[in-house]
Specification:
Blueprint: H1 17-26, H2 38-43, H3 50-62, H4 67-75, H5 83-86, H6 94-104, H7 112-124, H8 128-141, H9 153-157, E1 172-173, E2 181-185, H10 190-194, H11 197-208, E3 211-214, H12 224-228, H13 232-245, E4 255-258, H14 261-267, H15 270-273, H16 280-287, E5 290-292, H17 293-299, E6 319-323, H18 327-330, H19 337-343, E7 349-353, H20 367-370, H21 372-389, E8 393-396, H22 399-412, E9 421-424, H23 425-430
Helix pairs in contact: 1-6, 3-4, 17-19, 21-22
Function: Component of a complex that catalyzes the oxidation of glycolate to glyoxylate.
Cofactor: [4Fe-4S] cluster
Domain 4Fe-4S ferredoxin-type: 17-48, 68-97
């Protein structure tokens, strides 16, 4: 097979033009990516596969096709990056998709309902205070969902019946016992509203293994949500702010820790988001320090003092726990073994994998809002795969996945067969710590 030829005008294709062109030219059209792609699996159309989308983007970049014509197929891409580990040629799909979306954003028209939904998402999700206010209204609005425009209903359906109490974070947490390092935590956006306990558990686990934790107060949304939908300008604004916020500390840190897969992969792409700017080198340096919390904990795993889960009845000799791979953790960051290694250290825990683990759950940032039908199909399939494990607990490392799983598992639950408990990896680990510190 021959690598794909292209005639992309690099001087008119944005700061990431060379990376996009390289991704295109690396593709040999072998088709290995088809079986790994969730949307191809659902739609069975070449144009909705990675190979097909690469050809479409190439045609648009070369000027042979209008962006509007390719948009339906490219908008339907989850950006889950399952195609990357499946590709024998090493096509870096991430270096093509997001820069492409950013480049052609103004060339693609959208109907007003879609523009309204995207505007509301952009104005609320990245800002915890705004999102909490909007979510409170949404919880009330769930009772009147039939009166809400159809384009906004997916936003309501993903909200819980009630919001948890807010848990404001301190700027500094001392290590418990002997200090072995110092890290900075990205607090996240929607996660602070929908599941503030994740940050509490994360900090407790990090302190437990001897890490001092700082939470820079000037930090903002990581920018991933904007970057993945092509809003490069907004993504760069958030990224630039975080480069400044996480560089202000006078004392050195060992890592910037993230506990949401999408946020972690987004921060690791700051060099791409801020390419060609005056802070590109700083952005690359910062991106190199970003680690998922499971990686950091695994590095200090010998310091963990663990017991069987505190909330599990003692009559259950073995606790079956299903682990769901978040796409932006497994595919984008290459983190698969570390969460499993840490969880397998817990006494009486039997870790089981979820079937079709390569298929995205359908969350993918705001995908379940932008493409609700496909997201719903993938969410139902993932929930069925979780139920097939027979595990009463399912854990994952991404707030979007947790929300998607909870929604679909609840929809399938009956009185005789209640939904499995859905937890973040750090929430589960925190429940297994001996003498866990409280932030």
């Amino acid at each position: 097979m021959i690598a794909m030829q292209h005639d992309i005008p690099l001087d008119r294709s944005g700061p990431n033009a060379d990376a996009m062109a390289e991704a295109v030219s690396t593709c040999i059209r072998c088709g290995f990516c088809l079986s790994a792609c969730p949307t191809y699996d659902v739609m069975q159309r070449e144009s909705d596969s990675p190979r097909g989308r690469i050809i479409l983007m190439k045609e648009v970049l070369e000027g042979a096709m209008p962006a509007d014509k390719a948009a339906p197929h490219l908008d339907a891409c989850l950006g889950c990056l399952a195609c990357e580990p499946a590709c024998p040629s090493g096509v870096s799909y991430r270096h093509l998709l997001s820069p492409y979306r950013s480049l052609v954003r103004d060339r693609v028209s959208a109907a007003w309902p879609q523009r309204l939904q995207r505007w509301l998402t952009a104005q609320t999700l990245p800002y915890p205070k705004r999102f909490r206010f909007a979510a409170r209204l949404g919880v009330i609005g769930k009772k009147f969902a039939a009166l809400v425009p159809s384009v906004l209903r997916p936003m309501l359906e993903l909200l819980p019946s009630s919001l948890p109490t807010a848990k404001p974070l301190q700027e500094h947490y001392a290590a418990s016992g002997e200090q072995v390092g110092r890290v900075a935590l990205l607090a996240g956006c929607a996660q602070q509203v929908l599941a503030p306990g994740i940050n509490v558990a994360t900090i407790a686990v990090l302190r437990h293994i001897g890490l001092e934790v700082v939470v820079p107060p000037e930090q903002s949304c990581c920018g991933s949500l904007a970057w993945h939908v092509g809003d490069g300008e907004r993504a760069a604004k958030f990224a630039r702010n975080n480069v400044r916020a996480f560089s202000n500390d006078q004392q050195p840190i060992d890592a910037i820790v993230t506990n949401a897969a999408g946020c972690g992969s987004g921060m690791q792409e700051y060099g791409m988001i801020l390419r060609g700017t005056d802070v590109e080198s700083q952005a690359k340096a910062l991106a190199a320090t970003v680690k998922d919390v499971s990686v950091v904990v695994c590095e200090h795993a010998d310091r963990l003092r663990l017991k069987r889960p505190s909330f599990v009845h003692e009559a259950e000799a073995i606790v079956r726990v299903a682990y769901h791979d978040a796409c932006h953790l497994a595919n984008a960051q290459g983190v698969r073994l570390q969460p499993r290694e840490v969880l397998c250290r817990i006494p009486d825990v039997e870790l089981v994998d979820v079937g079709e683990s390569h298929l995205c759950c359908g969350s993918a940032g705001t995908y379940n809002l932008d493409q609700p039908e496909t997201a719903d199909e993938l969410g139902r399939r993932k929930a069925k795969a979780v139920l097939a494990t027979g595990a009463p607990i399912v854990v994952s490392g991404n707030i979007g996945c947790l929300t998607q799983l909870q929604t679909h598992l609840n929809s399938m639950a009956t009185e005789a067969h209640p939904a499995p408990r859905v937890m973040h990896t750090m929430e589960f680990l925190n429940a297994c710590l001996v003498e866990s510190p409280s932030p």
